[in-house]
Design a protein that fits this description.
With about 130 residues, the protein is an alpha/beta fold. The protein contains 3 helices and 4 strands.
Length: about 130
């Protein structure tokens, strides 16, 4: 499977922002930078949140103001219409949520996992550094 075609469902409260529901909390460190990078690489992002109505519109607007427009919001694809005969489980390849077992791992770890990135270890500076 081409990873750039993956669909990623992202929670809002406690994940993109610190949980302050019904208010919008402070943005989590590196949240929008990571989400913009994912979009630039071709990943499709779905906002998957408990919010609805006015509170949902506030979250969507907040994300848009920070450079993120979602592929879909609280549905698997933009054209989907809710039908109570079917499951509300969303169709996504990955889920980023603060309700994971162990809690939210943070956007730095999300970035490392998705992009298989490990930073270069910093070289130690010391007395013998000039010998290398």
């Amino acid at each position: 499977m081409n990873t750039n075609n993956l669909i990623i469902a992202v929670d809002f409260d406690g994940t993109i922002v610190e949980d302050a529901y019904p208010k919008i909390g402070t943005t989590q460190l590196f949240a929008f930078e990571t989400l913009r990078k994912l979009q630039s690489e071709g990943y499709r992002l779905i906002l998957w949140t408990y919010r609805s109505g006015t509170k949902l519109k506030e979250a969507v607007t907040f994300c848009k103001e920070n450079g993120i427009e979602f592929y879909a919001v609280n549905k698997s694809f933009p054209e989907e219409h809710f039908d109570p005969k079917y499951s509300r489980k969303i169709n996504a390849d990955l889920f980023i949520d603060d309700r994971n077992i162990g809690g939210f791992i943070g956007w730095t770890e999300v970035y490392k996992h998705i992009f298989n990135y490990t930073p270069e270890p910093k070289k130690k500076k010391g007395f013998f550094a000039f010998l290398k």
